[in-house]
Design brief:
The chain has two domains: about 80 residues, Beta Barrel (OB fold (Dihydrolipoamide Acetyltransferase, E2P)), CATH 2.40.50; about 210 residues, Chloramphenicol Acetyltransferase, CATH 3.30.559. By secondary structure, the chain is an alpha+beta fold. It is about 25% helix and about 25% strand. β9 and β10 form a beta hairpin. The longest helix is centred in the C-terminal third of the chain and has 17 residues. It is built from seven helices and 21 strands.
Length: about 400
């Protein structure tokens, strides 16, 4: 018997995914739990196992197609078995036909069941009776059905869409918004719609931080760890969050409560070719600089290879986007909603500064904090950044 495997609800509020790659083709024999396809959701690439053994009768989507939760992905059955047309009807008894029809009802095979009075009403109101789903006994169309159909606006017929390959100035390339890029776009739009964004910038003298990192690099390299400035920033960030807990929080709109997190799970934005992924370093306050460095390295590698587990993307309380690895002095990062704030760390570089009336050159680290003004006031954000600067300038602590 042919059985249809529908794209399941994988949780996390995911409603659709993109077929990245089919690992089987029509006619293949598959076993239960054998991976059929790789489906990319908003969160990660999910390997989709077969719930049945048998022959792949039909793949209902092509690679790069979007599939929604509940739609049929693949039909599996016996070799040579016919594929059912359309999607399988839900299980359950078929509606019973009435043994006796009401007086005056018209019964025509394959046509609408309705009394002459109802048909006359449909003609009077200009309603196409054949398009009405009857709610009376035996699916008979009633007067109420006709009047309801009249009140409903006519469905628009699908229009032919013409996508121009050129405009007045030259040729165009259209890139489908898919996968991580599509998820990033939706997440950024949600953040801007729901949070009140403000950005506060400050700068830390990074001289001591540079010295400490150079001192610890040999130990890290011996352990196979690439030591960047990011683990030090994470540790300093946590100390500042302890002093300013509302930055490690979310806003419960329904209950009108600020929910302060008593744990420190730090999201690290990772730049991948088609968007942005934010894996989370869990319980970062309980880990050393080298532990955090090793974990960031592993998470970034998994993000780029699309092998992250969904659990790696959950539970963040505050996020960091390390723009400085590319360059730049200032940025206005978008909050990783529903978190209260996000920190952009810029490039550590030699910059001219004035000290005691003289211009000196120092290695400095610009910091840009975007925060949700519904939760945090500007003064509190400034105090938090000031304390973060203090910790970064004294990293041995």
């Amino acid at each position: 018997m042919a059985r249809q495997f529908r794209f399941p609800d994988v949780g996390e509020g995911i409603t659709e995914g993109e077929v990245v790659r089919w690992l089987v083709k029509e006619g293949d024999e598959v076993k239960s739990d054998q991976t059929l396809a790789e489906i990319e959701t908003d969160k990660a690439v999910v390997e989709m196992p077969s719930p049945y053994s048998g022959t792949v009768l039909k793949l209902h989507f092509k690679e790069k197609d979007l599939v929604k939760v509940g739609q049929v992905l693949v039909t599996i059955g016996e070799k040579g078995e016919a594929v059912p047309e359309g999607e399988a009807a839900p299980a359950g008894p078929a509606p019973a036909r009435p043994a006796v029809l009401p007086a005056g009802a018209t019964v025509l095979a394959g046509k609408v069941q309705a009394t002459p009075k109802v048909r006359a009403l449909a003609r009077e109101l200009g309603v196409e009776i054949g398009a009405i789903h009857g709610t009376g006994p035996g699916s008979r169309v009633t007067e109420e059905d006709v009047r309801s159909a009249k009140e409903k606006p006519a469905e628009k017929k699908p229009e032919i869409k013409i996508k121009a390959k050129y405009d007045l100035f030259g040729s165009l390339e259209r890139i489908p918004l898919r996968g991580i890029r599509r998820a990033t776009a939706k997440k950024m739009r949600e953040s801007l719609d729901k949070a009140a964004h403000v950005t506060h910038c400050d700068e830390a003298d990074a001289g001591a931080l540079v010295t400490l990192r150079e001192k610890m690099k040999p130990e890290a390299e011996a352990a196979g760890i690439k030591l960047t400035y990011l683990p030090f920033i994470v540790k300093a960030l946590i100390e500042a969050l302890r002093l300013h807990p509302t930055l490690n929080a979310t806003l419960d709109d329904e209950e009108e409560e600020i929910v302060v997190k008593k744990y420190y799970n730090i999201g690290i934005a990772v730049d991948v070719p088609d968007g942005l992924i934010v894996p989370v370093v869990k319980m970062a306050d309980q880990k050393s600089v080298l532990d955090i460095a090793a974990e960031i390295q592993a998470l970034a590698k998994a993000a780029r290879e699309r092998t992250l587990d969904l659990a790696d993307l959950k539970g963040g309380t505050f996020s960091i986007t390390n723009v400085g690895v590319i360059g730049g002095d200032f940025a206005t990062p978008i909050i990783n909603y529903p978190e209260a704030a996000i920190l952009a760390t810029m490039k550590i570089a030699d910059r001219a500064r004035v000290e005691n009336g003289a211009v000196v050159v120092k290695k400095t680290l610009p910091l840009c904090l975007s925060f949700d003004h519904r939760i945090i006031d500007g003064a509190e954000a400034a105090r938090f950044t000031r304390d973060l600067v203090r910790f970064l300038e004294n990293p041995e602590r």
